[in-house]
UniProtKB/TrEMBL annotation:
UniProt xrefs under PROSITE patterns: DEHYDROQUINASE_II (PS01029)
Coiled-coil region list: none
Protein name: 3-dehydroquinate dehydratase
EC number: 4.2.1.10
Protein keywords: Amino-acid biosynthesis, Aromatic amino acid biosynthesis, Lyase
Subunit structure: Homododecamer.
CDD domains per UniProt: DHQase_II
GO biological process, one term: amino acid biosynthetic process
Purpose: Catalyzes a trans-dehydration via an enolate intermediate.
Transition state stabilizer, annotated site positions: R17
Amino acid sequence: MRIIIINGPNLNLLGKRETDIYGDLSFNEFFQALQEEYPQVQLSSYQSNIEGELIDKLHEVGFDCDGIILNAAAYTHTSIGLGDAVKAISCPVVEVHISNTMQREEFRHQSYISSGARGVILGFGMQSYELALQSFLK
């Protein structure tokens, strides 16, 4: 099974930025542990701060892999283009957020990704990624 985690803007700073919201673990540290825990999954990751690059990556992998775990970060709430890209591909997508966006600023309550996603997981910290991965394994 091939699963890719695609992360959007500022998630390259996990472990350093707003640790009260996002924790102090870097994504790379978390990702290594996830790979070790799920050796049966061909797990890869991609991160970009650039909206068009995220859309290009969805187009590139969206017809070949078994699942995409997408944390579009702030683009979740602003990018119709990313939402359209999720709807355009055949690979199932699970939308993930580390924080519970519904407990945060009102603009974070809107998602352009959700309507095209298989499901949405939010508010469980980095474990949100693992829950999404488990949804593909069931």
